[in-house]
Amino acid sequence: MLKALAADEHVTRVAERLGLPQPTVSRWIAELGEQLGAPITAKNGRRVRLTRAGRLLAEAATRSLAALEPGLREVEEELDPEKGRVVLGFLHMLGRAIVPELVRGYRAEHPHVRFGLVQNARHAVVAKLVSGEIDLALVAPPPEGPEFESVVVFEQPLIVVVPAGHRLESRKAVRVEDLADEDLITLEPGYGLRQITDDMCAAAGITPRYVFECQEIETVRGLVAHGLGVALLTHAEFAPPPGLRELSLTPRTGRIFGLTWLRDNPLPPAVRAFRDHALRTHGVTATRSGSPSTSEGTTRHR
User: Fold this and answer.
1) Out of 27-31, 123-127, 271-275, least confident range
2) What number of other Cβ atoms are within 10 A of residue 103's Cβ?
3) 51: Cβ–Cβ under 8 A, 6 or more apart, which residues?
4) What is the pLDDT of residue 124?
5) Residue 212 scores a pLDDT above 80
6) Are 18 and 4 in contact (CB under 8 A)?
7) Between these two residues, 235 and 290, which has the higher pLDDT value?
């Protein structure tokens, strides 16, 4: 209102521009002057002009509005599912195809939604979710605990990869127990696949002999292809390196990937809409606590 008065210096026209009754504007001017202890307007014929105090106050209000407008715009976008921002954390391996496909499908329906994409190891992604740095986490296995809620979005079978010429190469299927005397190549502690490998070895009653601990699955494949050990992995998204053999695992075991959020943290509309899109297009099972349902003949690792 002060900004409009400074520009027009006519109470009636300012009231019309703001859609307010003229007496309401006049009363507000008088009350503001009483609060300041000095009038903010003075009559100038049929017009009014801002006093020095009124002009200083108008300039301060203009500066404050300029600083506030970006924040108000962000809040408006956050509350509007068509204009909001989704911050998604996920494993490095999902950045080639899975996440782009998921995001592309959502953006086709909501072209103005913006995304922040954060890639890291499972433990780091989950930590960012807990701290509020990201809205949703796409990891395997989904974290367990009463503070989390998850939707299983897809599942990948686990396999054994060995170098060409390995003693197990001719097997149709391999058990985890068959790897008891093998040099194993895996990811570092904190990665989801490492946790699964540890759990499977423990369930089979063997102590794994890890000779290489890596940060990238493709590095694991490369080391195996060069004859430096064997590994438990998922199928390669693209052609595996020469010298690598992929063998089925028995019993059939699946690695599940879950979209996870904090149960007691209200999701902004855009984030909620993206989560619902993931459930609608990819979701298998929603879970609040405990494990998702298990497919017949398949062991799922969380």
Assistant:
1) 27-31
2) 18
3) 38, 39, 40, 41, 42
4) 94
5) yes
6) yes
7) 235
Indicate the residue type of 28.
Answer: W
Torsion angles phi and psi, residue 158, rounded to 5: -90, 145
3-state SS string for the chain: CHHHHHHHCCHHHHHHHHCCCHHHHHHHHHHHHHHHCCCCEEEECCEEEECHHHHHHHHHHHHHHHHHHHHHHHHHHHHCCCCCEEEEEECHHHHCCHHHHHHHHHHHHCCCCEEEEEECCHHHHHHHHHHCCCCEEEECCCCCCCCEEEEEEEEEEEEEEEECCCCCCCCCEECHHHHCCCEEEEECCCCHHHHHHHHHHHHHCCCCEEEEEECCHHHHHHHHHCCCCEEEEECCCCCCCCCEEEEEECCCEEEEEEEEEECCCCCCHHHHHHHHHHHHHCCCEEECCCCCCCCCCCEEEC
Would you say 6 and 55 are in contact if contact means Cβ atoms under 8 Å apart? yes
Query: What pLDDT is recorded for position 23?
Result: 81
* Nearest C-alpha neighbor of 116 from the set 142, 135, 93: 135
